[in-house]
Amino acid sequence: MQKLIDLIKNKDLTGGEAWSAFSAPEKSKRFERKNVPARTFRFSVEEVSTYKALRKDLQVRLFDDCVGSCAYCRRPVGHYGWAWHIEHVIPKSKYPSMAFELSNLTVGCVHCNQWKGSRVDKKVTNKSLPIINPAMPGFIYSEHLSFVQISTESLCFAKYSTHSDPGIETYDLLSFKELERSYAINGMHAPTAALHERLTRVMSASLTTSKGQELVTLLGELKSAIYRLP
Ligand SMILES: [Zn+2]
Question: In the predicted model, what is the mean pLDDT of the chain?
């Protein structure tokens, strides 16, 4: 790992590039940045296999630490739940030196990971998040948010309650309203659920680009209109 940490220290790689070299390792990694000539970095067979093994260990450890649920929304992830990413609580884009700090890593479902990347990471100052910080020592989720889920054979409803300012910000910035709606709509009407799912995917894919924000707003309004259909 020291090689990647040194490459960050020397500003040869950004936090995101170093993380990519670790999480999707190859013998040759090419990185392109705006206004910087493309650069290629080489990694030995041993380095590639070490990164792969370490990543697997890390995934198992984080999954166990989070008891198989997203650190932000607490929905189940993994084989019987939602897809998830290794989540950098303090963003590696702003604080590259924290890219490989174990205490800064947790489990984030795709929904939370994407909304946090789009709406929260740029607001982080002095390593302080506007939303809950699940990596903070002594952090207790229920002091900020609680989550009730009621299921029957054909319906499922979920509702979050907020108990603190960071909890309110988490609900708002990570768009937990979307999660609540997804639960309800998925149980009600299959074709509407499929349309809802497609819109959600396009919105998620558009979140990462600045131009996409307009599309996200538009599709969000369209989705809201679906919820109001008789
Ligand atoms: Zn989540």
Answer: 89
Ligand 1 centroid distance, CA of 2 (Å) = 31
In whole angstroms, give the CA distance from residue 104 to residue 14: 17
Query: How far apart are the CA of 22 and the centre of ligand 1, in A?
Result: 23
- Listed by start position, the domains of the chain span 1-56
Closest of 142, 147, 150, 82 to residue 112, by C-alpha? 82
Q: Please tell me whether residue 94 adopts helix, strand or coil conformation.
A: coil
Compute, in angstroms, the gap from residue 46 CA to the centroid of ligand 1: 34
pLDDT tens readout for residues 61-94:
999 999 999 999 999 888 777 789 999 999 999 9
Three-state SS letters, 28-78: EEEEEECCEEEEEEECCHHHHHHHHHHHHHHHHHHHHHCCCECCCCCCEEC
